[in-house]
Design goal:
Blueprint: E1 2-5, H1 9-13, H2 21-37, E2 41-46, E3 60-63, E4 66-68, E5 77-78, H3 83-95, E6 101-103, E7 106-108, H4 110-120, E8 128-133, H5 143-157, E9 164-169, H6 177-180, H7 188-202, H8 208-220, H9 223-231, H10 233-237, H11 244-253, E10 260-267, E11 272-278
Parallel strand pairs: 1-9, 2-8, 2-9, 3-6, 4-7
Antiparallel strand pairs: 1-11, 3-8, 4-5, 10-11
Pfam family, one: LigB
Organism: Mycolicibacterium flavescens
InterPro entries: Xdiol_dOase_suB (IPR004183)
């Protein structure tokens, strides 16, 4: 099963749940479908907001062990990574011609934590393999390379006698001020200052036309359109739109079946075009 969903720290700051009600409704429906699917393991394709990877930035990486940073109102936590399966995945990718990086004891942020909490109810409810896709620090993988990578992951997963949930997390259109600057090593305090100063302008950078093109292409699994949308994401829809690579990787790993939207809602207060889509 494939689930692709936007994430946003703003959603968690909205503790009274006043905003993004259409998106929240779609996310709740996706969580219900996940519960019915009852996965044995989850593979999360996520980006990095220049926290885990700063000085060395792999194009693709498989985590053999990982934790979640304390962020917002959430405490730090550990992920239950099936390390043998994760290592087997990495070895399979090497055989397939993907120069995959592996990482241990890596600390990940809301890009991975938010979908696990929202779709599964917690960080450690089901074993999870984090798969990092570089969406933040140029040069980025092309749309074609992301498709090929996701398909290679899928060929490994087909050999497992397990129910596997594939999550693509991030996007859609948004342009976080901290990603618009080419600064790879900043403190959380400096990051917060940059975001605060650029927030008003960032609220104006949601691009529903591009978002709907992505959703249409995912729903029909139009490979040519997906490649084009990935390769023009930053120019058309902001630095954060580069995270659509995680959607494409997850969809390709799921065999290229249609991934159909459950909801879409631009939420200026979260500076993001928020969407959720599933394959079942």
């Amino acid at each position: 099963m494939v689930v692709c969903a936007s994430h946003s720290p703003g959603m968690e700051r909205d503790t009274e749940r006043r905003l993004g009600l259409d998106f929240r409704g779609g996310l709740a429906e996706a969580a219900e479908r996940v519960a019915r699917f009852d996965p044995d393991v989850v593979v999360v394709f996520g980006g990095d907001h220049r926290r885990a990877f700063r000085h060395v930035v792999p194009t693709f990486a498989v985590a053999l062990s990982a934790s979640i940073l304390a962020e917002g109102g959430h405490q730090a936590g550990e992920l239950t990574v099936p390390s043998t399966t994760a290592r087997d995945l990495a070895e399979h990718l090497l055989v397939e011609g993907v120069d995959i990086a592996v990482c241990r004891d890596i600390s990940l942020d809301h890009a991975f934590a938010q979908p696990l909490r929202d779709l599964l109810g917690g960080l450690d409810t089901i074993p999870a393999i984090p798969v990092a896709v570089n969406c933040a620090t140029a040069p980025l993988p092309t749309g074609r390379r992301v498709l090929d990578f996701g398909a290679a992951v899928g060929r490994f997963l087909e050999r497992l006698d397990q129910r596997i949930l594939l999550i693509g997390t991030g996007g859609l259109s948004h342009s976080p001020p901290s990603l618009e600057v080419d600064t790879y090593d900043i403190s959380d305090e400096e990051r917060a200052r940059i975001i605060a100063e650029g927030m008003a302008e960032a609220r104006t950078k949601i691009r529903p036309e591009w978002d709907n093109e992505v959703l249409d292409a995912m729903a029909s699994w139009d490979v040519d359109a997906l490649v084009r949308l990935v390769d023009t994401a930053h120019a058309r829809a902001g630095a954060g739109a580069n995270e659509v690579r995680t959607w494409v990787a997850a969809g390709a790993a799921g065999g290229g079946r249609p991934v159909t939207p459950l909801s879409y809602q631009p939420v200026p207060e979260w500076i993001t075009g928020m969407a959720v889509a599933t394959s079942a």
